[in-house]
Design brief:
mainly alpha, 5 helices, 2 strands
Length: 182
């Protein structure tokens, strides 16, 4: 057995005791077959031989025919997506995120533009060695934390309960569409 540096285990130091020469009991043997569906998936089915002299079988397609339960479950999700409750949750989300992102990007771009076009203003000292640019840069971090806190608060107060109810309703409808417990 070889180590990762290409030398056989036990070589180099002359000790060669029996504990080092034994294979690791947790190691995969060379005869082990990988159950990974992606293992050599790109090469199979292109006319190569499978090792027995026969052409390798083709890889099954990624899309499969859907059974009636899958179709019904998909219809449940489409129904929930079209519901008034779902649209309300989405509009509350957009009502916070769109203005928040616009405000944060405006603040960030203003900082970058001021730093590049008005270096004299940004270099103006405020207290000791602290200048306007340092305060504005630290303000970027502060506003990031403030927006994160405001987002989490908004989600907790205005969306989480409605979203959880939608989730439960969707799971119940999906169970009913599939004919019982999942």
């Amino acid at each position: 057995m070889q180590s990762s540096n290409g030398r056989a285990r036990g070589d180099g130091d002359g000790s060669g005791d029996s504990a080092e020469s034994r294979e690791d009991p947790g190691a995969v043997s060379r005869d082990a077959r990988y159950e990974d569906p992606w293992y050599d998936a790109l090469a199979t089915g292109w006319g190569e031989l499978d090792g027995t002299g026969m052409p390798a079988r083709a890889v099954p397609g990624a899309r499969r025919e859907q059974d009636a339960a899958d179709v019904r479950a998909r219809d449940v999700y489409l129904e929930v997506q079209r519901s008034v409750a779902f649209q309300e949750v989405r509009s509350r989300y957009r009502g916070f995120v769109v203005p928040g992102v616009a405000a944060f990007l405006t603040w960030y771009v203003a900082y970058v533009v001021a730093a590049t076009t008005a270096p004299g203003v940004m270099a103006r000292p405020v207290v000791g060695a602290v200048n306007v640019a340092m305060l504005a840069g630290l303000g970027q971090f502060l506003t990031t934390f403030l927006f994160t806190w405001a987002y989490a608060r908004h989600a907790r107060l205005r969306r989480d309960r409605a979203a959880l109810e939608l989730r439960w309703d969707t799971q119940e409808l999906t169970r009913g569409a599939q004919g019982g417990a999942l």
